[in-house]
Design goal:
Length: 150
């Protein structure tokens, strides 16, 4: 043992160990509680039930929407907002971004193809997440799209 005959040194070492471990536990708990209540529940990669659309939702407010690689795929990016209190997911399409993305793809994909893909998702949806299934319900017409987490 490190400090055989000194009770005072053992008590000091024990208090130090307990203090450090308590502080670490509190830090870890605060981290997980913060992550639990502030994280975006929709963040991740989602594949539609039909398997033809892949949607990647990033925490920075961008949404990548792509066709499955087996079906001559490409990916287009746009912005979104999530209201976690009311469970509303809104996809915004920006014409300038469509033009920029078409230029970056060097003519292999036209602006109309990108616009068509993004406008198919543009709108406001109520969302529901049940385990690994995301259901988007269009607020205006009530049609639903279902996605599985990859």
């Amino acid at each position: 043992m490190l400090m055989k005959n000194s009770e005072e040194k053992r008590n000091t070492a024990w208090r130090t160990v307990m203090t450090v471990s308590s502080v670490l536990i509190v830090i870890v708990v605060v981290f997980f509680i913060t992550k639990l209540f502030t994280a975006n529940p929709m963040e991740g990669t989602w594949i539609s039930d039909e398997g033809d659309v892949v949607m990647e939702i990033r925490d920075d407010g961008t949404l990548s929407l792509g066709k499955n690689a087996e079906k001559a795929g490409f990916t287009a990016t746009t912005d979104y907002t999530v209201d976690k209190k009311t469970k509303v997911f809104t996809v915004h399409v920006n014409e300038n971004e469509i033009t920029e993305q078409a230029e970056q793809l060097d003519g292999s994909v036209t602006e109309d193809m990108i616009r068509e893909m993004l406008e198919s998702m543009e709108g406001t949806y109520d969302y529901s997440i049940d385990r690994n299934t995301l259901t988007l319900t269009e607020r205006e017409y009530g049609s639903q799209m279902t996605f599985e987490r990859e």
